[in-house]
Design a protein that fits this description.
The chain is mainly alpha-helical. It has 2 domains: about 160 residues, no CATH class; about 170 residues, 2-Layer Sandwich (Zincin-like), CATH 3.30.2010. The chain is elongated and about 85 Å long.
Length: about 325
Amino acid sequence: MDFREHQDRAKKNSRIIWSLYILLLLVSSFLIGWTFVVGLNLAEFYQPGYEQYSFGEKFFASNLRAFNSEQIQVLIGFSTIAFIIQGLTTVFGFIKKSDGHKVAVAFGGILINEDSDNSLDRKQALNIVAEQALAASIPTPSLYLIPEQGINAFAAGKSSENAIVAITQGALDNFNRSELSGVIAHEIGHITNQDIKLNIQISAFVFGFTALFFLARFIFYNAIYNRRMDGRAKLVMFVMAAIIAIIGALTVWMGRILQAAMSRQREYLADASAVQFTRHPEGLVQAFEVLENGGKSSKMENPESKEYAHAMMFGIGGELFATHPPLKKRIARIQNK
């Protein structure tokens, strides 16, 4: 396997997807600004004195106003506010998800260390983490054991200095040393490639789009309880709220697609890194085959697993929202087929 070639390809594709995220944020912010300005203009045209004009004429005039020299600054202002609101929500999401230890604890994870009364298989897992961290030239991450029978693993944290690696009990029970080394090296690869920080950023980005739902609800309730507003103007406000909610739903939906696409590229990159660290590609291939051919499941029961599906080593989901490439494709890449 030419892991450097695969690394370069995955990084290039990730940059393209990241650019699409930024574009999606800018487009959604502009659409929110446009909705506000056109909506407010329509609300004004539904006040007494404009009864002789049809809706089409009012809508056309509202758009002309929105882009004239007097209101273009207002349009930019509303778009900027929408951008800031989504940005602040994104920052909140980043802070919420940045502590890897809290993420592991949310899954019921148990911290494994040398001072604990550990079984031989747990001590072996600790040794593998130390070995692969040394091979990757990073500080040894903390190791958490997740009490789930589904075979899975993930890395979390915002930097290599405070990263954690988590494996499920199912992974510990079903993998031999060589296979577990490949799995842990894969997660170490996510840390060295800064995927753990990227995962937080992407997840926070998608979370930021949900701010549009709160904005839509604010407009909706403001229209309901505003007694001075004309009934037809209220109707315009309700339509504005509905449009903003639709924009929010579409951006979250598209964000999930981009999140899944980004995750698939980073999985290929982490597979390549695992081969680089272990120098034994068959270990990782055999781990994949345990799931592919052994009838084992990667499903996790914890409700948090859906939100963090993109961070897991083995994912679930349909083709459009699949956060991981098919195991057959991952095996073929490793074996350079």
